[in-house]
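Sat 14:20. Reprocessing the chain from the morning session after the first attempt stalled halfway. Input below, unchanged.
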Amino acid sequence: MVTDDKIIREMMSYYDERAEEYDEIYLGKGHTTIDPDVYRKDVAKVSEMVSRFGKGNLIDIGCGAGFWLPSYARNCNQITFLDQSERMLSKCKDRVEELGLANASRFIQGDFLDVNLETLKYDCALVGFLLSHLTFQQEEVFFGKLEEILKTNPQLMFIDSVWNARRQQYREKEGIQERVLGDGRIFRIYKRYFERPDVEEMFKRYDFRIESCYAGDALIAAIAEGYW
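Finished this time. Tokens:
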């Protein structure tokens, strides 16, 4: 997230208010600039990747409504869901209950950059659509904290918004952008998009080795292993 307090509050409010319709975009709904079939195709590809990800004790950082949970759940023993939005966590809890995973799940409401997780250690982490809201300075803090809570040779899965010629037609690669809810309310957020080289360089900076990567027309995803 950016350091401008007003934008931070607006972003937090946006994602809290968007909880009820958050998963619609994965189903090809609610996007005015990208063909719905593009999202459905990319979600199918990324879901297949997620189904190969996870082990032991997993933390889902910026879990949202838990959309990816059905794909990775069977690979883990314990799952921690972290999100700063109370409404997102509530939707995620509903999904956990539906899948019968309540006994293997833990929920933490808070900002990953601030919440205290020092006593917890994880085998792997999934971070979806969070790093694109962090500045480069906050990215450094994020990966520093991630290293503190991950065990030796951890897995990391990254899912976010891709940058390409299609998206360049209507977005800037980085900056303050508007988002519109279904009821017409407009919010401002900070967003940056990723090309494959951006992801490769980022993982290399923080001692992660990419094992697989997918760059579609809407989404980009990568699975990597930490080498420490």
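The two ends are 27 Å apart (CA to CA).
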